[in-house]
Amino acid sequence: MTNRLIRSGLSFVAASLLALPLAGLSSADAASFRDISDSSAKTQIEALYQKGLIKGVTSSEFQPNQQLTAAQGISLIVQSFNLNLDAVRFIKAPKASDYFAKVKDSDWSAQAFVIAQIFDFDVPSDIDPGAALTKEQFTYYLVKGMERSSGLPLINIKPVELKDDAKITAVYQGAIQRSFHYGIQSPGADNSFHPQDPVTRAEAAVMVYNALEYLKSHPAP
């Protein structure tokens, strides 16, 4: 994707990543987050904090059960896979408002949405940055970001049969199946995926952690 844009011969415009990781409002020692001690995602949250990819909502709280917004989710994915526009050339610097009706150019997450657009995350133009992401949406964008950042090869996998497969939006099905292959997540105990449930900050942290671990053990050629 990036190479095609570079070859277009358009003039260079530098772009910087403005989005804060996981919409963090404050930083803290991860070990001091008083609300993650009983979370099954404690290890992953602390690991991502140490990498500088996530922050707390307050100085002492991560709020693991809080729903993840579109702005938080897109920013987390862009930050985690180090996606940027440094090598991309444009005639005119792109703005979030060029692509998204509800994302203001002054929003803290605006540049992350621009990057998601350029890297073809397939984010709807009418997305509300403050709305909660569903599990299927976050999975789709995460797998897109993972694959765009690493050049993972095309794979042919045997789909996992899900009890609630009929509830999954058709365009998201392939990415969800690949997320199982990559070890990003697994179906529930009853073989259900619950695609329409809002994804939480803790669930997102676990999924990003697992995606990064997969890339670490499967480096690009």
Automatic annotation (TrEMBL):
Keyword field contains Lyase: no
Entries under InterPro entries matching the protein: SLH_dom
Protein name (database record): S-layer homology domain-containing protein
Species of origin: Paenibacillus lacisoli
Domain SLH: 28-91, 159-221
TM ranges: none
Signal peptide (UniProt feature, chain positions): 1-30
Short name of one Pfam family: SLH
Highest taxon, organism lineage: Bacteria
The entry's keywords: Signal
